[in-house]
Amino acid sequence: MPSIDWDEVRRRREEFWSSSPVYRAIYEKMKRQGYHFIATLGVVKRCHWTREALVNKRFCYKCLWYGIESHRCIQMSPLAAWCWLRCMHCWRLQPEDIGMHWDETRPPVVDEPEVIVEESIKVQKQIVSGYKGNPRVDPKMYEEAMNPKHVAISLTGEPTLYPRLGELIKEYHRRGMTTFLVTHGVRPDILASLEEEPSQLYISLEAWNKEKFMEFNRPIVPRAWELVMEALKLLPSFSCPTVYRLTIIKGFNDSEEALKGFAKLIEIGNPTYVEVKAYMYVGSSRTRLQPSNMPKHEEIRMIGKRLAELTGYMLLSESVPSRIVLLSRIRHPKRHGKGCPDGVEHPEKYAPVITHEYEEMASQ
Ligand code: SF4
What we know:
By secondary structure, the protein is an alpha/beta fold.
């Protein structure tokens, strides 16, 4: 591909986001929230754990369990705001949060995968360069962070609405980087036709049946639940590790009925892992849910134990700071990097608890 004209990329981006009041409002709000726009519709944002790794040598649970080096990880999305769901627990900005109506189901622009990849790396280096010379940052880790190795395609919006997702994944892999793709499973057609599988594939789930899905995930397209079911049935065809990410909202999906429902869904997709994570009272979700909807880690541990009983999966590990436990049907999770070598067995070594963590997150 010829060299990229970054002035032209920036000009097109500015032109697009100032082409309507709702676009402008979302663009301005997201920039104030620390998002960096890339290509036309993509975004990168520094992850809380990238900073924690550099400044406090504390690592995210994906480092513990899968070797992702948190300080070398890009948190991005090819689509800033396009999604087919309006999940109640979503901490990301939704048009209704800024009093705007939005029913766009397809992104109006399709960016070049290479432009997204190149600019995501460029922006990540700009973000990390802010730690240069910081006395608390190990110079060796700084050098490593300036050479990103992992990409979390999960930040905002629904990445499978980006039609060239397979090419995007391929471009990152071509540069020796790993890709963790997080989707709500609403585009089984895109998942089935990916040119290249991600390094690890996540399906996020909060509801265990259609009625609860309509109530909580509030889809803006017809047949969304049926599409998610199709995606779950696709998972056994993937050779990469697959994950159900169950976000537990206290008072909504922590009942015995819900856990039995999730156990049935686990039977359908037979994921390699099930991550059981607490809902966090942060971001825009605070306009829809309460602090009391946020489970404590002990409650997540209990739910993990019950799900292990119901499914026969092994309860392998936990991260208390992230209020999450890992269920797995394999004894040794696949490691995608050299981070946190014995993190499954000794999570406390790499993710010690610091109590004020949630106040800090809640204030973002
Ligand atoms: S894997 Fe996720 S939590 Fe860990 S550093 Fe990357 S974006 Fe952050």
